[in-house]
Amino acid sequence: MRQTIIRMKKIDAIIRKSKFHEVRQALHDVNVYFFSYWDVTGVGHEKKEHLYRGVAYSSSDIQRRYLSIVVNDDFVEKTVHAILEAAKTGEVGDGKIFVTPVEEAYRIRTGESGGLTLK
Questions:
Q1: Residue numbers of the domain that contains 98
Q2: Residue 42 lies in a domain
Q3: What is the count of structural domains for the chain?
Q4: What is the pLDDT along the chain (119 residues), one digit of tens a residue?
Q5: In terms of Cα–Cα distance, which of 56, 64, 75, 61 is closest to 39?
Q6: In this structure, what CATH number is given to the domain that contains residue 71?
């Protein structure tokens, strides 16, 4: 068996919750099917004004969806592009994308490590 090292990157994206379904479809369109996501609250430049019982108040707490995706280096550019295109509204608060290297990965079922595939 020949071992091939596959280099990987982690892509973290913080997007508007309203754009999640479009982003998910865009990721599926570029063959990225597995990722984790959860709802988060953050603080940013966007300010929301709320009305409660006739009193207006401002809040900087922003509801967003956080996506965590690990892909091979070959998929980084198309994954980031898919998110950028699908999540963009052109308004303040569209979100951020962060790309970081993945040094090690372990498959729990088999104990394989290091981002290796066996051929």
A1: 11-102
A2: yes
A3: 1
A4: 566 677 899 999 999 999 999 999 999 999 999 999 999 998 777 666 666 677 765 566 788 999 999 999 999 999 999 999 999 999 988 999 999 999 988 889 998 887 545 33
A5: 64
A6: 3.30.70.120
- 59 torsion bin: left (phi>0), alpha (psi -120 to 50), beta (else): beta
Burial letters 4-27, b for 16+ CB under 10 A, else e: eeeebbebebbbbeebbebbbebb
Task: Look at residue 86 and tell me if it is in a domain.
Answer: yes
Both tokens of 96, joined, read 């951020």
Q: For residue 14, give every residue at least 6 positions away whose Cβ sits within 8 Å of its Cβ, in sequence order, or none.
A: 40, 42, 64, 65, 66, 67, 95, 96, 97
Alpha carbons 94 and 116: distance in angstroms, whole number: 35
Computed on alpha carbons and rounded to an integer, the radius of gyration of the chain in Å comes to 18
What is the DSSP pairing of strand 95-102 with strand 3-5? unpaired
